[in-house]
Amino acid sequence: MSSGPYLVTERLILRPTSAEDFDGWAAFHADAETMRFLGGTQSRAESWRSLCTMAGAWTIRGYAMFSLIRRDTGEWIGRIGPWYPDGWPAHEVGWGVRREYAGQGYALEAARASMDYAFDVLGCDKVIHIIDPDNSASIALAERLGSVNQGPTQMPPPFDTFRVDAYGQSKAEWTARRPAQS
What we know:
The protein contains five helices and eight strands; from the N terminus they run E-E-H-H-E-E-E-H-E-H-E-E-H. About 30% of the residues lie in helices and about 25% in strands. The strands form two sheets. The chain has a five-stranded antiparallel beta sheet, with helices on both faces. It starts with 6 loop residues before the first strand and ends in a 5-residue tail after the last helix.
């Protein structure tokens, strides 16, 4: 079991990554369509290391992406939340949902809670989302959150050759629009 903050939304629990997430995490990272814009597929061994990286970020930074858990089934369905590894262009709220749960509003529900967490708890002044220009689904989600394309950005190695844009907004922009979100 994980320790740390738990965010509860209508259909989800967002909590720190833990060992019990590994089978879902590995399946997520093995799916070529899911990983198309997230750095490519990973073997089970590589997935273990990436899970440990996320769990380690919780220890080192005190935050990282949350594991998304369906409240009704307890199933791990993705990862969403604040992310700021060394060399990253800015504080990010990133996302990834298992393919069978895409298009059902889970990412939007969790991203909203994560944006609130980044601004209200972590004290971020600005949040970005790093998105491949061909990833229309992620662009649509960023825009639904109220983020706008701020132009090309660059991630650190080994992702420095990826073509990506930064979508983002300030805390003031998020706060001004928050009550009217649908």
